[in-house]
Structures are given as C-alpha cells and as structure tokens.
Amino acid sequence: MAWLWDNAVTLANVVMAVAAIAALIYAHLQIAENKRAERRANANELWRETLRLAFDNPKLSDPTLKLAEFDYDERTVDGSIELFQKYELYVDTILNASEEIMEVSPTREWDAAVRIQLKPHRDYLLSPYFQSSGYLKQYGPRFRAFLHDALNDPRHTPPAPPPSVAQIDAGRRKAGKRA
Fold it and tell me: Does 54 fall in a domain?
C-alpha cells in the first residue's frame, strides 16, 4: 500500500495519458465517421440530382424508350448536336454520381440501382465514339471495371417499352361510342 502512495503521482500521470490517448482515438474515429457520413450524403444528393435530371429530360433519360432519335455516329439527338452535348453531360452526371456512390456505399442495393440506371445508356457507353473519347479516363480503375461488368450483365436490362396503349384502346373507344 505504501508503494501505491509513493507512486500516486506517476500512476495519475499514466492514467491521464491513457485517457488522453483514448480521447484522441475516439476523436479520430468520430472525424472519420463524420467524413463518411458527409460523403454518403453527397452521394445521395448526387443521385437525387440525376433523378431530377431524368424527370426534367425524359428524351435523354432513356434512349431505349425511343422518345428521341439518337445517332451516336453523327453525335446528334433528333438531329441536334446541341441536344447530343446535353445528353453527354447527362450521362457524365450519372457516371460521376454512380462512381461516388459505389465508392462510398458499395451495397447490393446501390449496385442494382446504378446498373439499372446505366443500362438504358448501354449503346452510347459501348459506342466507338464514347470508347475512344477519353471520357473513361476520368474514372478510377474499380469503377471502369464495374461499368464494364454492368454493361455486359444480362440480368440488369431496362424494362421493355410499354405497348402502344393508344392503338389498343382506339378500337374500344370507337366501339363504345357506337353502343
């Protein structure tokens, strides 16, 4: 017991040092978690922005629906070079958001969401123009590998365009008016 009293100051200093190290470790973990949370929030905001862009630009959001005529060789949409440039920026926004999301939160749910969002742009992303444009160089090797896999994965295909409802209903409407 005498030893404890004789070394109380030393023990107090050791306890204080251990407490300071524990506080430092805790602060570091909190800062790291806050950075991860901020990156997740930024990725979610980027994704919301891509969805807003899709809503505001239905012609550009899904070329497979044939709402516009895409010519990747001539680099036009509905004959417009300007609209094609907007389409390139639209796809670039999707790719940037997708890379950020897959880096920050590589879950199965995000993987599926990103693949589904990218699939309608498959023809453009695999076009000789895009492949030789240098755009892919701005993305990291992991995302480029993911993109290659996503574009070659038959499981995540865009839904088929809806049938022409107007043609199906047109005969019924006429028949209903006659009755």
Answer: yes
User: Is residue 7 in some structural domain?
Assistant: no
Spatial CA neighbour of 63 closest among 93, 92, 84: 84
Using alpha carbons, select from 120, 123, 147 the residue that is nearest to residue 60. 120
Confidence of residue 163 (pLDDT cuts 50, 70, 90): low
Whether the CA torsion 92, 94, 100, 103 is positive or negative: it is negative
Structure-token pair, residue 89: 């920026």
- Residue 173 is assigned to a structural domain of this protein: no
pTM over 0.85: no
Q: What token pair was written down for 131?
A: 């492949």
DSSP code string of 104-127: H---HHHHHHHHHHHGGGHHHHTS
**What range defines the domain where residue 122 resides?**
43-158
Q: How many domains does the chain have?
A: 1
80 falls within a domain: yes
Phi, psi of 161 (to 5 degrees): -60, 145
Nearest C-alpha neighbor of 166 from the set 177, 174, 157, 154? 174
Pick from 103, 122, 107: which is nearest to 43 by CA? Answer: 103
